[in-house]
Model the fold of this input.
Amino acid sequence: MCRFFPMVLCAVIVLTGCDTGNDTPNSEDVATDGPPVSQDNLDQSAPDAVPPDTEDAVPSDTDVTEQAPDSIPPDTGQDEEPPTWSEYTSLKISNVGPKQAWLHWEVNDGHGTAYVTDNVGVTVFAIYQDGVVVGEVAADDPPTFHPEGIQPDTVYFFQIQAGDAAGNWSTDGPSKEVKTECPTYWEDKCPVSWPPDSVLSAEPTSDTSVLLTWTPAQDNQEVTSYRVLQDGECLCQDFGVPETNYTVEGDVTEYEVTGLQAGETYHFQVSARDSVGIENGGGGFILGPEVEVTL
Done:
């Protein structure tokens, strides 16, 4: 019994105090100078690596050139600017005759100041006749042009436009209107004409009469007579030759019509003739303005 007890006690001591041979200390047994380490302390420990600033980052698959501003278009090298004219330039028309009109336009003031300019250079001039191009003149040639096919006693509208090598054309070139002359040699070949704003007025003077007045007709020599037509019939004086019968002389521009019916509507028109009686295609009187009136 005495021998056995010391052996049991020794076994207990060996079991509780013996070295396991593991040199790695238990984390629960490690003494620290600071507070105990917990999971919350670990979460508040040093942060992970700082993530990149994605706000200013450019995706790796994006071309950096696509981020450049597009306010400045690429320089294609193409000229798109048309020539322009100075307000001081003009188109002059001289030597106007029955079948001719000479055009001349100013490109400078004679002292080095250009009247037509372009960012690259003017290369050609286009001549318009009544809105249709009838010819071109190179910029290094004299600025003159003689249109063909001009007819006597005719109004023409001419304009000049400038172009450059890129095909740009001005729109503000000088312009001028001209009326060709009527030949007076040999014979009169120009008929009577009426101004574009010609008017025939009718003023009732009673229940059965009306006073007609009209814009004078034009002729290169002289208007010799007028006819007044009532509903298509000439109120003519009979001089024995129906083709030349007329209502009043060429220096008279009014006529009173009588013998009408009250309440009726009448249509009147006036025509004019010169000494030769030439009409487009031959004949006599040229029809002018008309009016309708109810008494």
Summary: Helices lie at 4-17, 39-43.
